[in-house]
Amino acid sequence: MFVSIPNWRMAHQMTYRGLWDYDNFLYFMAIHGYIAISLHESPLVTPHYPKLDSEDLLPDNMLRSWNWYFILDKSFEFHKNELYIVPVKRGRDGK
């Protein structure tokens, strides 16, 4: 899947910072079973602002990219991972 994410530094009025911050977007996609397989930058650049805490994973060369272009792949085995299995509540007797 191809996804274009606006960099908040471009000052677009419709950008929702909480989701579009780099790390938050990757986390959001990961919990839905998607993994980024490639990342491409825009030829347009934004003004320089320092990295946020929610941009630890953002490569330095992508800091001023107008948009981040991702190719994502869906892992159909993702929800079989034990980490994401919702535990079943049991009674006092463990059954």
Task: Please give a structural write-up.
This protein has 95 residues and is an alpha+beta fold. It has one domain. 15% of the residues lie in helices and 22% in strands. The protein has two helices and three strands. It has a three-stranded antiparallel β-sheet, with helices on one face. The longest helix has 10 residues, at 22-31. The protein starts with a strand and ends in a 21-residue tail after the last strand. Mean pLDDT is 79; it is low at 83-91.
Tags for this entry?
95 residues, alpha+beta, 3-stranded antiparallel β-sheet, 3 strands, 15% helix
Gist of the model:
The chain is an alpha+beta fold.
How would you summarize the topology of this molecule?
Blueprint lengths: L1 E5 L10 H4 L1 H10 L2 E8 L25 E8 L21
Antiparallel strand pairs: 1-3, 2-3
